[in-house]
Amino acid sequence: MSVFDTKPWLSAYAPGVPQSVQLPTDSLVDMMDAAVTRYRSAIALDFFGATTSYSRLGDEISRVASGLRKLGVTAGDRVALVLPNCPQHIVAFYAVLRLGAIVVEHNPLYTPRELRHQFEDHGARVAIVWDKLVDTVVAFPKDIAVRTVVSVDLTRAMPASKRFALRLPIRKARDARAALTSARLSTGATSWQSLLGARPLRRSFPRPAPGDTAVLQYTSGTTGSPKGAILTHFNLRVNALQGAAWVPGLKPGVEVVYAVLPMFHAYGLTLCLTFAMSMGARLVLFPKFDPDLVLDAARTSPPTFLPAVPPIYDRLVRAAESRRVSLSSIRFAISGAMNLPVATVERWEEATGGLLVEGYGMTETSPVAAGNPIGPSRRPGTVGVPFPNTEIRVVDPEDSTVDRGFDEEGELLIRGPQVFSGYWNRPDESAAVLLADGWLRTGDIVTVSADGFITIVDRIKELIITGGFNVAPSEVEETLMSHPDVADVAVVGLPRASGGEDVTAAVVLVPGAELNVEALRAYSRHRLSAYKVPRRIVQVDELPHSLIGKVLRRQVRAQLLTNP
Asked: Which residues form the AMP-dependent synthetase/ligase domain (predicted)?
């Protein structure tokens, strides 16, 4: 028996938060239909000032689902989405689910090599792609399964005045337009508008069941190789319910949620694509985070709920002070994906008068598993306490049958309805993290206080978290090792004062070579997404290795921290 079986954290819950939520019997499709029915005339989406009502959103979902069916999409098929935040992303997500098919989310900032690896893994035959990346996907080799690419022009969802401004014959307009669209339909692609022109799907068309797979969300998980985490309708639906229960005082049909988090990330997916839609919120969409865009929107559609990561809160406060824009409408702010400095909390709460609390989760928990209470019992510096319906244990990292007690370091295990069902086509790696009795091995070393607050101490998995994204050291190491000047390399994360980590490479050069940091960074940028490129590259004489030749990253990290 674990000391945590008594769930001491329940006494820390904010008033009104239940110990458990009623487990859903509906799918995400049913959830969206209910929102469309209940909030028909309310604004669902806001994109640069162009608004979409819930009624219209439901109609577009039905039409695109019908269009996808004509393209041959059937229940169980994987459909790849390679899109930034935009109205088409929400429509595509729910249209795929309406057919009982599976959404596969992709980062549109990935390099062609990174995208190709994921397409090879999941085998989607249909892809809905930002038009700037269509040529990349169309050019994939024939042995990759994708046969139909749907091209999405983001600007078609913008107000007419904005589209007109983008076409002005001035450099600023041309640069802005080039950042948003390719302005042409690539050969071999189907237009998004043709899907919108389809007749609505008949209401009697079969619907997915709660236990069906809804999303494959790629993650480095607890090892360095990206894998597709299998998330069911039930997993994602219950996490949305847990999130809604966690925030007392939410007003269904009234809240304004800012989608500054990318929705291809598990954090943004749940907080924006499911949680916000489930409560009839007005979702204000940003293709990327830009403080000026956010503050411009705040003047006309003040936000009330902001999920983000610490650097965004810091930048937004500074920008708001500079432009003298009030952020006082934001009652609730949820931080995740990286550690939240206490100084950031203090600056934010002084500027807004609202609350900023930290949560904890991972893609494998859909993603939220714990959070600081929304109220006086919150404890900055910790990631809070387990969500309703969620159990935790702390165990010996080398033997999960040996339990640790309060305030003792150990690996965090999680069990709950939001825990995923495994990795796509990876039975061995699934078995390594999902124990027989339903517990998920997180790979995080924690301590838990006697009243249930969790503090992250370290990570077994050695992933680097930068800007809220996971970076697998092995992937960066492989890239640098392919450079002719590099004889050996270890990549680690070093903490930065603003929160998160800097990707840092310790390199051993071949005899006669001289360190050229900018050349190595430029080499990496051609092969890796920008957030994976090392911010720091340090030359060392040698690296520590285990008896089997594996570089000992923890020792490297300790040395770099001692001798920065």
From this structure: 34-424
Domain 464-562 has what CATH class?
alpha beta
Q: Tokens for 5?
A: 């079986």
For the beta carbon of residue 232, count every other beta carbon within 10 angstroms. 23
Distances (CA, A) of 261 to 73, 167, 265, 338, 496: 29, 28, 8, 13, 21
**pLDDT over 80 at 292, yes or no:** yes
Say which residues have a Cβ less than 8 Å from residue 58's Cβ, sequence separation at least 6: 32, 33, 36
> Sign of dihedral through CA atoms 458, 371, 256, 132?
positive
Residue given tokens 């022109």 in the structure block: 197
480-498 pLDDT, tens digit each: 989 999 999 999 999 887 7
Which of 305, 312, 304, 348 is CA-nearest to residue 329?
Answer: 304
Q: What is the pLDDT of residues 100-125, one digit of tens each?
A: 999 999 999 888 988 999 999 999 99
| H-only helix segments in 247-333 | 266-268, 277-278, 291-300, 310-323
Please say if the pLDDT value at position 223 is more than 80: no
Rounded CA separation 373/371 (Å): 6
The residue ranges of every structural domain in the chain are 464-562
Cα–Cα distance list, 374 to 13, 175, 246, 258 (Å): 8, 42, 7, 19
At residue 547, the pLDDT reads: 56
Answer yes or no: are the C-beta atoms of 95 and 73 closer than 8 Å. no
pTM value is 0.88
Q: Which residue, chain included where needed, has tokens 């954090």? A: 267
pLDDT, residue 164, reads 76
Location of structure tokens 């022009």: 153
